[in-house]
Amino acid sequence: MVAAEDYNGACSSRNPLAAGVYRHPNKHINIYQGHNICAAQLLQQQQQQQQQLLQQAKQLHQQWKQKQIHKLQQQQQQQQQQQQQNTHQGDDQLQQEQQQQQQQQQQQQQEEEEEDEDEELYIYRNLLRQLQQQEQQQQQQQQQQQQQQQQQQLQQQEQQQQQQQQQQQQQQQQEENICSLGCTDWDDIEIDYKGKEKNEPHSAAAAAAAAAAAAAAAGAAAAIY
Predict the structure, then answer these.
(1) Is the terminal CB of the chain with fewer CB neighbours within 10 Å at N or C?
(2) Comparing 87 with 139, which gets the higher pLDDT?
(3) Which residues pair with 3 in a beta bridge?
(4) Is 38 exposed, middle or buried (0-12, 13-18, 19+ CB in 10 A)?
(5) Residues 149 and 88 reside in one and the same domain
């Protein structure tokens, strides 16, 4: 197995699924283990980003609440001031002007609040969209990782089968080479004292060996007589 350190590159969110892009300091971790570690790191980073986005949404919502409380306090102060002024001033025209001013201020505040609410809703919607997109990306990445792991396992199985076939072929070739040098079935060869063969040898090498044995037997018989 090739070590992950032999491959150049780093754990990148742009290309997190490419095999062999992760460099791990431990030489004993192979490329597939390194790839899984890389994917786990990316998943952790995405989860941290989601936490940050949720935290931002909470902060924005808290700020919006504080703004609303501040506006209510301002309205109450203005109403108290106007009531105090109305008690000291008995002019009807002045009271009417003050009432008109109050109405205008209330309208302005309502418009501002609506704008703020629209802005907050827009921000929340964008945050939710980002979170949904990240979840979809995570699911797609997990599916791609599973598919790649399955492909890698199939490739490994094919390689093992090829290696076994090669080993079997090598063994057969070795046996054939040994037999080509001289594979003789001596049980089927019988030679009498006169040097004649009763059975034919099974190969050229066996025939030569039988002829040599016959010559030796003939020489021994001549020496005896």
Answers:
(1) C
(2) 139
(3) 30
(4) buried
(5) yes
